[in-house]
Design brief:
alpha/beta; 6-stranded mixed β-sheet; 5-stranded parallel β-sheet; 15 helices; 12% strand
Amino acid sequence: MTGARRSVPGPDASRIGSDASRIGSDSPVGGTAPTCRPLSTSARRRLGRLRPDGPDEMGRELAEGPAAVAATLEAIRPERQGADEILAAAERIVLLGTGASLAMARAAVPAWRAAEQAGTRRGATGAGTGADRRPRAVLVRESTEAVFGGVDGDTFRRGDAVIAISQSGTSPETLAAARLAARSGATLVAITAHARSPLAAAARATVALPIGEEHGAATKSELATLAALLTLGGGLPDGPTVGAWLAERLAGIVRSWEAVLPSVPCLVGAPRTWIVGLGATAGLAHAGALLWHEKAHRQAVGGTVSEFRHGLVESVGTRDAVLLLVPWPCTPDLSGYLDLLAREVSALGAVLIRLENGGVTFGGGFGMGGGRPVDAPGRSAVPRGTRAGLAPGSRPGTTEAEMPATDLAMTATAADLLGQTLRLQQLARGTAHACGTYVDGFRVLRHVVLAAPPRFD
């Protein structure tokens, strides 16, 4: 799937976390550099051994993410007819998962709801026709809550289309919830990387993710799952042209791995990391908190900006890091709200790090363009035949000219969300290696948790 890949040289270890002049100059990191403890010599040495594509397992799988997205969008076209027919007939749509799969469902559901409101999702007939058409509800349910009989106050019912998401297709909680949905009269669609898995066998239709093997924390499977969900939900066109465009942009983010390194000292030195977003990026915040615990083994909390400001903020201390995943579109009103957050974080002596538009930025200035990553293109316009939406380090391509303007605008928005996901994964990787906690695979999950799976049937 990924083909032969030329290794990209790693960064100069002597400059990592120490050369403040890089921030906001020749690096895609902007804003005013905060005062953070410098990395130790051993931490800089560990980071200096890394390339964008390895040699660690996480680096290799991150580098395979762009190709996984392209392969997913090419493979989904012949597979989606069955899924579209199920979705078109549904009275209600439920996205189901746990862990990273649940986080991707939360990231994708705003696009599903917007498409239902606009009637633009393929097959989004809703209830009624024409002027009487009513958008259907699109819900997200956590698998375990769904299994235990309405712990979340809801139930599966006849007329539901349930999109069950599991990379392995064997997650005990998701498999049990999917079977319960089928027994309740719902129609099941599986999204999985394993087309012969028990989850796929239980489903009426399956969207297979052609990502190859993934041995560590969810990285390329997150990207492929998010791309598949956005496509099924009407937030992203399918096909090889769109896939190639996205892969080119995401490959640019992989190549510009060094963009995250100036922020690593602040994340390593942070007693706690708070990862916050709104809407789709709140889903990414939960995915980031999972990665922080899985790879960096550090305290991290994911949530919304308002949850942070109205409760979590009481526990924020000096040198904590607040990682803000800026949502798009960032309207003037939203910019003012995020500037308020930036001032509050600064008053507490914590560090604000922003992820937006393929770049990593320190500080606020949302309403004034302050702290914008150097060379990061604007998102307000995506003219055809240009580098619109490309991350720093991307090579211009010709695929944009082949897409209709509406598809290009939609793809650029999806690319921003996928790019934030990839940058977040890179930050977790860098933090884990600098902390000295990184290991391939898992320490606990497969040896303890999956070794004694719960029985639901």
